[in-house]
Amino acid sequence: MDDPTLRQLLDDVASGVRSPDDAVARLRRLPFADLGFARVDHHRMLRQRMGEAVYAPGKSPEQCAQIVAELVAEPAGGPVLLTRAAPPQVEAALAGTPDGTVTETGALATVAWRGAPTRPGRVLVVTAGTADLPVAHECVATLDAHGLRPTLLADCGVAGVHRLLASVDELADADAVVVVAGMEGALASLVAGITPAPVVAVPVSSGYGAALEGVTALLAMHASCAAGLTVVGIDNGFGAACAVVRLLP
Amino acid sequence: MDDPTLRQLLDDVASGVRSPDDAVARLRRLPFADLGFARVDHHRMLRQRMGEAVYAPGKSPEQCAQIVAELVAEPAGGPVLLTRAAPPQVEAALAGTPDGTVTETGALATVAWRGAPTRPGRVLVVTAGTADLPVAHECVATLDAHGLRPTLLADCGVAGVHRLLASVDELADADAVVVVAGMEGALASLVAGITPAPVVAVPVSSGYGAALEGVTALLAMHASCAAGLTVVGIDNGFGAACAVVRLLP
Amino acid sequence: MDDPTLRQLLDDVASGVRSPDDAVARLRRLPFADLGFARVDHHRMLRQRMGEAVYAPGKSPEQCAQIVAELVAEPAGGPVLLTRAAPPQVEAALAGTPDGTVTETGALATVAWRGAPTRPGRVLVVTAGTADLPVAHECVATLDAHGLRPTLLADCGVAGVHRLLASVDELADADAVVVVAGMEGALASLVAGITPAPVVAVPVSSGYGAALEGVTALLAMHASCAAGLTVVGIDNGFGAACAVVRLLP
Amino acid sequence: MDDPTLRQLLDDVASGVRSPDDAVARLRRLPFADLGFARVDHHRMLRQRMGEAVYAPGKSPEQCAQIVAELVAEPAGGPVLLTRAAPPQVEAALAGTPDGTVTETGALATVAWRGAPTRPGRVLVVTAGTADLPVAHECVATLDAHGLRPTLLADCGVAGVHRLLASVDELADADAVVVVAGMEGALASLVAGITPAPVVAVPVSSGYGAALEGVTALLAMHASCAAGLTVVGIDNGFGAACAVVRLLP
Amino acid sequence: MDDPTLRQLLDDVASGVRSPDDAVARLRRLPFADLGFARVDHHRMLRQRMGEAVYAPGKSPEQCAQIVAELVAEPAGGPVLLTRAAPPQVEAALAGTPDGTVTETGALATVAWRGAPTRPGRVLVVTAGTADLPVAHECVATLDAHGLRPTLLADCGVAGVHRLLASVDELADADAVVVVAGMEGALASLVAGITPAPVVAVPVSSGYGAALEGVTALLAMHASCAAGLTVVGIDNGFGAACAVVRLLP
Amino acid sequence: MDDPTLRQLLDDVASGVRSPDDAVARLRRLPFADLGFARVDHHRMLRQRMGEAVYAPGKSPEQCAQIVAELVAEPAGGPVLLTRAAPPQVEAALAGTPDGTVTETGALATVAWRGAPTRPGRVLVVTAGTADLPVAHECVATLDAHGLRPTLLADCGVAGVHRLLASVDELADADAVVVVAGMEGALASLVAGITPAPVVAVPVSSGYGAALEGVTALLAMHASCAAGLTVVGIDNGFGAACAVVRLLP
Amino acid sequence: MDDPTLRQLLDDVASGVRSPDDAVARLRRLPFADLGFARVDHHRMLRQRMGEAVYAPGKSPEQCAQIVAELVAEPAGGPVLLTRAAPPQVEAALAGTPDGTVTETGALATVAWRGAPTRPGRVLVVTAGTADLPVAHECVATLDAHGLRPTLLADCGVAGVHRLLASVDELADADAVVVVAGMEGALASLVAGITPAPVVAVPVSSGYGAALEGVTALLAMHASCAAGLTVVGIDNGFGAACAVVRLLP
Amino acid sequence: MDDPTLRQLLDDVASGVRSPDDAVARLRRLPFADLGFARVDHHRMLRQRMGEAVYAPGKSPEQCAQIVAELVAEPAGGPVLLTRAAPPQVEAALAGTPDGTVTETGALATVAWRGAPTRPGRVLVVTAGTADLPVAHECVATLDAHGLRPTLLADCGVAGVHRLLASVDELADADAVVVVAGMEGALASLVAGITPAPVVAVPVSSGYGAALEGVTALLAMHASCAAGLTVVGIDNGFGAACAVVRLLP
Questions:
Q1: Closest CA of chain A from F19, distance in Å
Q2: pTM of the predicted model as reported, rounded to 2 decimal places
Q3: Is the predicted pLDDT of residue B124 greater than 80, yes or no?
Q4: Could you say which residues from 77 to 116 on chain G have a Cβ atom under 8 Å away from some Cβ of chain H?
């Protein structure tokens, strides 16, 4: 509830258009729908310029379907995403709300409904290796649902640095870069040293040796010597996309 | 070395203006100055739109002074910062290169030379508690050197959430928000749930109980349920400022 | 064995009613039943005002059934709970001791026999997200078995803080609040800043990014800036309920 | 701002007693005092039944003095505490606001102003060893400021369990027990197995061998086999006292 | 090769009974059998007074069978144990070397061949809970194979300390005590405070809350306030038994 | 692109043999093949004297087959390895590119194509126990593909140090030694104390007690008191082999 | 209070020698002296065959002096030790209770009063390096106070394994061996593979590389492949000595 | 004692030149000097081709001086190094054994006596930043003492990758490269991707953000995607140099 609305509400009380009781009720009514097991947030698009995402793990197929349907039914809402959904969850959600776009992210999938209109912004999603692709695909699908059309540069790891340098112009001209990297995560430092654009790094739980399921990459990205690099959680391609949505005009 | 320069170089060789030997030498000459103990990067302003920062810990006062002088001497350079400098380092650097602006960050200081012209952008730096102020001051000083004029909101921790809600309009209207928080770092999630702006979180090493010198806040910020929150390293107010410099137009 | 009993025992020896040998034996006889693989504690209800709970993991269905039967057979005992039981364990226990109340907690279940009479106390169980529900259900079932009738508020995570604020009056009036939250666990700090009631936080192993299977939430809750917040172990909905049973009159 | 106040505010607008503009301003005015470096929370006593505490580390003596003075100046406030204060901080605060009660907690101190009237409640603070005393003293001083008169049982560690058993009746009759223990923290499990009262455990950073500065005790207390034990952060005697204040009637 | 043997060897060379070449070869021949994938140690019984144990995980059933057969074939050897063997490994080993004694340790088993003659020594194996039994059974089986006849006291956890105190005389009179405990491992401290006997603690990977798969118990046992407690690795019932075999006369 | 090539390129431009546009294109063309999901590095053999290896986990059988085929098709390339491949990946790769040599490494396999000619160098691969063999086999297969013919010494763990001492001459004469050890990793220190050769240690994720899936061995090898010992990542038999390939002439 | 005493007590009640009230009082009177800040355990010698030790850190010199005096004043007590005492603590204790034997353990000291008569038992204390000596000296002083006369073998680290093998006969003939080792702790495995005696390992916080202040050695000793090795806490030379006192006849 | 010596010894016994008793004594005499607090290893040069190094921390100046003197007195020995020595240790050692070469490594120093003759081998020591110089200097001093003349390339961190690429030819032609890097350690991966030479990485404890005193760099280097990279312990410039000494011919 923003300031003009609050002002209008009180004006209405002052002018007798609205009773005090009604105003109290209105002030207490918050823009979510209570499904019992979930309080669906119909306010997020206004508050955060982002759609609502349903994180599938731990929810039953029926719960996924019900929350997605509730969100898509709200006419003023933005994009609706179902993330990290297993096949039965995807099926149930699509049965209840058809016309979703499915993107495979490894064994799971991201489904998007009511994508936003295309908006400008040169976004690069760069991965260090093939094993980082599922996370990159989640990121690309989320950006796509918000109207951005990112370019994916796969397999640019630092062990063969010329593979990255081949794309140095695209990096220098980007409006935002997402770096998706497991192992030691060094690609993020390197990219942030090349481009003036905002760089969001996603540590990935792939890798071996001492990768510790992504913790090593997360720590390494935070200890990076490249100034102004920011980091999201392990495997959080969705979060990196949201960060890009926030920062592009 | 960008594409047009490379093209010109080869045209010069083709037209006989430049000999092949000279071109090889030119291609190998990279824009840094080698001081023996440091390779000073004169290219960063062009490559990254950011000034160069000298991280003082581990350097002698003389080394600090010498690197700062070398950087400020480069006419095409941008802002020059000396960060986390102890008093003798500050003194030596200012003796060699006067007119720096000193900002105290706890027992240490940030010194800035040749600040950039003021540029637009509503930036908020929000802290959870008084103990987070030294990190916030480093962030503010860095933003300031790059021409931004951030507003500092101190002591908005979630234990008295109304202190934050009092600033809800400023949060909603910001172009970028930096959240500086130790302890459990919950303020970052809360802020990112309120504003549509990009939010950069800085975990702080203050706090007790199980704060683990900032590791708890760092992990908590990465496990945040707020979409699109990004994080920099522990106590890295400088890095958060650089991230904001990257993402503002 | 409390003081009056001990006094009576010695009086009986002094008066010749009981022989010294018999008194030694009596002093050594402790109120448990030895099943060979378990020493069943018949004394807990008196000593701790709580019923006995059988933690199912690692026990065979037969062992579960046998311990439950032994406990329910004790006439002076209180509620008997079987927690985190897999379907074969539930079946075996109910076959041996019918009339248990089954509550599903994700893929497992809590079974309760001989619930305590209803007792007063406004208890809220608040969860941050849908994935926290199995732990919340274990908590609710345990409270229920001890005669409390808690209210469950689901999906109040801080990313949409208005969902929590909608329940601010219930929080302010509660006698005890249990906060069940994975991810970064920030909800606990927020709730403890709103209510004067005792707040018991349960970190949950759900979440991703850097949730580290609940360790991040546990640490964050302990580093909380909210005074007087207490914490139980990861996913320990049962323990949180017992803490509430202890603290209500 | 509670419901009746809100209702009154709107009634005033409806009856013309208050203009809408004034009401908007009133709704936005929150009960804290902004000192620039701190937002002093004058609302906590009403909201949480607890006084406000100033955590001294990281604050200058002047800041400590200023915040304490602001808090004590609020007539409707409750107890005011300055915790973990070094001698110069204690001196500055007492110079500005005399008549504080000083309790030494190792090399630091807790200072309390305007203690609450004595209230009933049998509270035990039990320590495992002499090294746990500074944390226990912080706990006792905080309880005392809130009107409780706890009994301190020092040096009851499990290596000589008869020392604890000597106090078994006091444990059984307590209304609340705080267990302060470093090393392996086993005392908390033992106490919680003896008493039906709520037990709040404080892990202490003392100890050696593999005590890991309190982390081992914290983890062990959370893995405890004693049902309903709750835990606060490492060395957080203040927090344990607040938890007791919350749970006693 | 001990001193008298070496002396004899050199005497034989001096007296011409043995050639220098033969002595060199003899000195280089070490008492193991090389099976290609394993160097079977026939010397351990002499060197360490313990039998040889084959750790089954990671070995094929055939490899288990072959190593066991080689060890049992050595006439001067002591007990032979196959530990943590899955059913196919047990079957293969018993097919090749019949007459082994099988002890179930949860889903796995310990198999023993050629047990040592019974030897004196009152050994107690005490467990905190039912979930610790598989580890305790491995310990008991290993002690048994070496001729000791331990007494198993199950389910003596500190949450009901009277269950342990019932056995206080047996503890006081024991020659050695093994404490097997998961969760917070507090039982080890308690037992070591009661008995003058050597106490070997085995942390167990059971438990929840913050048990961290046994790491919490291991750390807690090392931070114990009970003097002279020693610890073996997580779930290492075999190792605890070997420690007892070493220390009994 | 090395210096002579660059010189030739510029000479060609100077002499008019090559147009500047063509030279720019050539300078930008880097020696990899872009398969969309992978940038195959055809340059590694020249740049690093090692063949290219395809790490199978996370790749589909078809992707494995396609990358292997692309690599083997490059005539100037060196050995091609597919590592940690599951049976379907092995089958697909061999179907597309026959004549690979398969080495089993536990449940997975290493496949090698186009092995290098035999080269001199006495390399020992020493393992502590049978459970270390899969990692040792990966190491041996990789060495073999590069033309080295290592000797495998299995089961030389320090618990029976004479088993290692039996091979002391081979250790002293080796050109390089790889030590593959889980558990506490002590074998690496011991070997490095015996031989003057370079010693590369591979911590293995086998073991129990407190082996922490290889982290304990990794840390122990780095804390080793043996000077000049170097370490690769956990279970990284491939990496150890590559290190040996780098260091032998 | 042991069985015969209890029997006697009850007989006395039965025969009228003692009143029931007196018996209750007697049963409740436990053998410790309450100094307010410490409950001094006068029972430990009987219960554990060990003297009482006062751990100095965190105690004031006066507290050290007072506890030592109380313990030495008890005529039936055994050895009294003050461990890890700083010079002012040593001085205060010796001023109050002269004739203590001081052993330096690095910058701190162990002081012993009323040493036990010499008892048999060949005990070896073996250290890996010179930096382990302070811990070894604490161990030796504690053994000495209990009447044992250990032999110290310094600087036997595995990097030069022949230094250890020189003492192989002493190891084989020992009744108990304490291994004191920092760095990677490999010496403990090696010694336990050589001797049949009980081996108690003490991880030491010395070392660098990845020694993590003794945690690496502690973990490595627990992951040891040597059967029957037991471990005490980091730097706990006192605890290792107590373990030896417990296990020798 | 090598094979020919052993053969000669036995021949001497066979021929009567040496008595069996004398041979036994000889076989037991090992090549070290026992100073009581240290067993000085006179055999290392023969066994490992490296000199002996004395690690100064934890040793008194006198002990440092005595061990250095003993080592330099051995005529057949190689280089003698005193590492990480504080000023008083340096002074004492030089007073007892003059003519040592002192290299400052931050606040400490490395001192070398009796350097080996110059030997061939192009060794590069590359650092990421100025803060890594003390570790690099320890490495250079150690290489120098063994006759190698390394080239130091300072401040080549990946944030400005062109600073490294400027030295690409030296990297490609090196015989061995040591990479000294704190922060995220990415430089090691990058260098190993450029050069075919053996690369030894040294993680450094400098850095901030989430550098965790070098642990992040250590883990990152082990998770590196560059094949054949090896790693030594944190800050272990000495160890890296020894690794290079082992691997050069």
A1: 21
A2: 0.86
A3: yes
A4: none
